[in-house]
Design goal:
It is a single chain. By secondary structure, this protein is an alpha/beta fold. The chain has a single domain (32-160), classed as Rossmann fold (3-Layer(aba) Sandwich). Helix content is 51%, strand content 15%. The protein contains five helices and five strands. The chain has a five-stranded parallel beta sheet, with helices on both faces. Helix 2 (58-72) packs parallel to helix 3 (85-94) and helix 4 (127-136) packs across helix 5 (148-160). The longest helix is centred in the N-terminal third of the chain and has 34 residues, at 5-38.
Length: 161
């Protein structure tokens, strides 16, 4: 029996819908993981900024210095967990054992790898659940220069707070 184009279209639509339905479980898992791991944090400041900044940059140095000063005063530091400003902020807090240096990474092919200055590291499948966690458990936000990703996080934070 020969299949017509409508049959093939229905088949593909059914497959796509099935994948969408199952992705709900990954979304829920992202939120459960975040709520479970971050729910008991004390005062936390989230720092946003470029992933492209090198350690020689004045912004890298300022992010490291600021997070060090905040950690010294008992604030946990939370970032997106990657390189650049995120690494600088985690690095500034890393030396203080009384606070957490938290990285909330995103699972992307050929993209961001976690920086080595985190004490708590979580990986997320979806940007929106990651952004909710970056905002939900913080009492302060610092935005350093960055690109579209930083702007996206800034406007998400403004929307959620």
């Amino acid at each position: 029996m020969r299949k017509n184009k409508n049959d093939l279209a229905k088949k593909y639509i059914k497959e796509i819908k099935s994948a969408d339905v199952w992705s709900v479980f990954k979304i829920v898992a992202d939120f459960v993981k975040g709520f479970d791991e971050l729910g008991e944090l004390g005062p936390t400041v989230t720092i946003f900024g470029s992933s492209k900044v090198k350690s020689e940059s004045k912004y890298y140095k300022k992010a490291q210095e600021l997070s060090s000063m905040l950690a010294q005063r008992g604030f946990n530091i939370m970032t997106g967990g990657g390189p650049g400003i995120m690494e600088a902020a985690n690095r500034g807090a890393f030396e203080y054992k009384n606070v957490e240096s938290i990285g909330l990474n995103i699972d992307l092919p050929f993209e961001q790898i976690p920086n080595k200055y985190t004490t708590t590291d979580l990986n997320f499948d979806y940007f929106f659940s990651r952004k909710v966690m970056l905002v939900k458990y913080s009492i302060g936000y610092v935005i350093f220069p960055g690109g579209y990703g930083t702007l996206d996080e800034l406007f998400e934070a403004l929307t959620l707070i």
